Amino acid sequence: xxxxxxxxxxxxxxxxxxxxxxxxxxxxxxxxxxxxxxxxxxxxxxxxxxxxxxxxxxxxxxxxxxxxxxxxxxxxxxxxxxxxxxxxxxxxxxxxxxxxxxxxxxxxxxxxxxxxxxxxxxxxxxxxxxxxxxxxxxxxxxxxxxxxxxxxxxxxxxxxxxxxxxxxxxxxxxxxxxxxxxxxxxxxxxxxxxxxxxxxxxxxxxxxxxxxxxxxxxxxxxxxxxxxxxxxxxxxxxxxxxxxxxxxxxxxxxxxxxxxxxxxxxxxxxxxxxxxxxxxxxxxxxxxxxxxxxxxxxxxxxxxxxxxxxxxxxxxxxxxxxxxxxxxxxxxxxxxxxxxxxxxxxxxxxxxxxxxxxxxxxxxxxxxxxxxxxxxxxxxxxxxxxxxxxxxxxxxxxxxxxxxxxxxxxxxxxxxxxxxxxxxxxxxxxxxxxxxxxxxxxxxxxxxxxxxxxxxxxxxxxxxxxxxxxxxxxxxxxxxxxxxxxxxxxxxxxxxxxxxxxxxxxxxxxxxxxxxxxxxxxxxxxxxxxxxxxxxxxxxxxxxxxxxxxxxxxxxxxxxxxxxxxxxxxxxxxxxxxxxxxxxxxxxxxxxxxxxxxxxxxxxxxxxxxxxxxxxxxxxxxxxxxxxxxxxxx
Length: 634
What we know:
Elements: H1 25-52, H2 60-63, E1 70-73, E2 79-83, E3 86-87, H3 99-108, H4 120-133, H5 143-152, H6 159-175, H7 178-188, E4 195-196, H8 198-206, H9 215-223, H10 237-253, H11 259-267, H12 282-296, E5 303-307, H13 311-328, E6 336-342, E7 348-352, H14 377-386, E8 394-397, E9 416-419, H15 420-425, H16 429-439, H17 441-451, H18 472-478, H19 480-484, E10 487-488, E11 494-499, E12 504-507, E13 514-515, H20 519-535, E14 548-553, E15 559-565, E16 570-576, H21 591-603, H22 623-632
Parallel strand pairs: 1-5, 3-4
Antiparallel strand pairs: 1-2, 5-11, 6-7, 6-16, 8-9, 10-13, 11-12, 14-15, 15-16
């Protein structure tokens, strides 16, 4: 059945609706004017809101104040690292070679001298190029906008920031001349390798002032502005040259160069990039910088820090550690290591905090705390000597039970009566526990504190087996009294701190922790630790001169150590894994001892042979006499 039509009037009394009025030109004009007025008011309100949020642009000089630079140098005066942003002296556009601002304008903002801070044509051209490419290949910001962003705004990508950037650009154009704006830009723009401004970049990359840059060098610096890290000639010279070719082509298109001039510049572009800091010693530099505030307070001026680092020792130590780990990382599950080399007075000569600084800046020589195992025993035996023992006293190497604790030897066997010095040389655990029981945990802790161990130590006999965690720098420094005759030291790396104009802010005057042990006990310890090297667990580490040291291996092969010394240097080596997982049979007498020997042989090259403090090498004994003495007990 078809639906019935709705009647026009349900109620007979209802009046018909009036016809709608026709909208003539006056209606549309009045509404258009009203909408325009509301648009203007709204725009003014929005701009007013963002204008209220603008920074104080009246103090441009204060806003452009740079942070100070700290240059850390090794003992030979070579730069290790430059910390902080590197700014060069301000140079006006008039003092630059014409090719430098021309290259920048050609590649960054060709209409700079004709627009009023905002370039609608340039923005539209960039958007069209980006649409065609399907990605961002051009930017639409003018140099004035970039100055506004770099000086006053954060790098956040928001509409609010872009509006403020545009307002600031218009203000800058009213406040400064075009040359002044371009000068601000060229002296503040980031150009990679920690450099800001063309002068710092010219000095860093080419070893010359920006005033003397060639056309090719100018184009290379201009090319950095798009992506400073990607086109940095120090890290990727091929990419830098490719980008420079693009800039030269842009200079031709903009009319700054003829094709012949561009080709001439390109053919003569065998740029020798200036050599900067070698990259070695970065763990050491970080450690030095972390301690700088305590010495000079708040840093307001550019500083030069002269340090104790020996570049030859540092280089040799880095090579030794990396080579050793490369050979066993997979086969022995040994993933990390650390090395530290000190003078007997505490001066740090080398510091390696890991196998690769770029992949991990965690300094395992300073920040990591691990169980030292038997490498802690010298302090136990020193406390035992102070309690009345002598190196020739005999103690029992036999099973021991202390309230259910049954420490065992690494070998799993027992040898019966053994002298104190032989027990230390062969790292006999049961004898170490007996020495600890005689001295007492409190005396051991006191001795460890005197020699320089600062980390917390548990007050129990587990100290005898090195169960309390220590850092490599602390443990190595604690061996220094054996090398210097009994004086405890504090490791240091800074000799002096001066400003770039020569004012001395800090100069080391000495210092230490005072006498740690009497000479007679130090002499006994040297005798015993020399025997560890010649007849005990440290044989692998023997040098071509008097030396002493001790191995250490923690439970389940989690940590392997060798700490040793000569009269000239004290060095420590740690091998292990960051996650504390065990290695495959790596002990202190193996890999760490070999690294230690390699490091020390290189460090002592050309150094006269000297005896250890208070220790006299035994006279050579012929084999027949040695046999007779063994048979007769003489």
